Amino acid sequence: MAAVADEIQRAQAALAACGVDGEVTAVERLKGQSHISLRVERADAAPVELRIEPQRGILPPYDLPSEARLLRLLRRAGIAVPEVLGVCADLEPSADRGQGCLALEWVEGDVMIRGRVEADAARAYCETLRRIHTLDWRVAGIDWLPEPPVVGPAVRERREIMTRLRSFGVDDAPHIRRLRDALDGLAPSEQPPMLVHGDVNFGNIILSPDSPRRVAAVLDWEQTHLGDPLSDWGRLAAEDLLGNLDLSADARAVMQDARTAYGRSDDDLHYWTLHQLYKHASATAALTVLRGWDFEQIAAMYAEPTERLLSIGGAIGFCP
């Protein structure tokens, strides 16, 4: 009971710091690894989602005020995102390192990763992803995001991944080194910078319960950047390699057609799939340090997907 009371007290303090009213009556910890994510019930008020920056996480540096700014601009541009109710840059200013927090409206619906994805849900997902990628980010006021360096977004991301790996002391793990070595000398074709979500796994998509299905909200924008939109598709292909997408045959065909409409080569998709598998492996390796997960068990998870991806070279469709 003391732990529950502490969670409620912490959530109450975070909501107050964000300028959000309401007496907290219950707190539920949500899945997700980059932030502490909570569903917060309030007396005589709608529930909210509360995100609190961890003291040490897998995706530093964290910047919840910038994410709140981005969400407000995306919502104004017609992208389905939760409404920002309040944000605080530093929840604990007396600590050596403060924690940001962000309060968002709670969006009801079905998390896309739960259950088999049919064609109507896949179509809604692909349409939303296309809207994100084709959004005129300059007109939308998102031109404060840094543009990719001359060396390209792939090189920038690989530097960020390597920094993460070294900070957790897992950069020389055999399964990670193999993926990194496979990337050496490869690069996707150059593209004009577009808006990239950065974490388009189905767990970050909420579908409306009505028919036809539509995307009610896209969550978790902390990795959003200007870069190559095919990196988002590479993330999907990597998730599929890992067995994390449950797609009907019709849904898979919808997603294949949507990816093909980007007019990019299979070689580019192959690069970004390999890149995103490497990035995924770096995140889970960091989590073995933070959460005490079995490192060998996590490493084994990448063996077959890596072999399959490397064996087929550049000739792949949406999901190999």
Helices, strands, pairings?
Blueprint: H1 2-17, E1 24-29, E2 36-42, E3 45-52, H2 64-76, E4 84-88, E5 101-105, E6 110-111, H3 119-134, H4 153-168, H5 174-183, E7 194-196, E8 205-207, E9 215-218, E10 225-227, H6 230-241, H7 249-260, H8 266-291, H9 295-300, H10 303-312
Antiparallel strand pairs: 1-2, 2-3, 3-5, 4-5, 6-8, 7-10, 8-9
Please name the defining characteristics of this protein.
320 residues, alpha+beta, globular
Short description:
By secondary structure, the chain is an alpha+beta fold. It has ten helices and ten strands.
Structural commentary:
- This protein has helices spanning 2-17, 64-76, 119-134, 153-168, 174-183, 230-241, 249-260, 266-291, 295-300, 303-312; strands spanning 24-29, 36-42, 45-52, 84-88, 101-105, 110-111, 194-196, 205-207, 215-218, 225-227.
- By secondary structure, it is an alpha+beta fold.
- The strands form three sheets. It has a five-stranded antiparallel sheet, sandwiched between helices.
- It starts with a helix and ends in an 8-residue tail after the last helix.
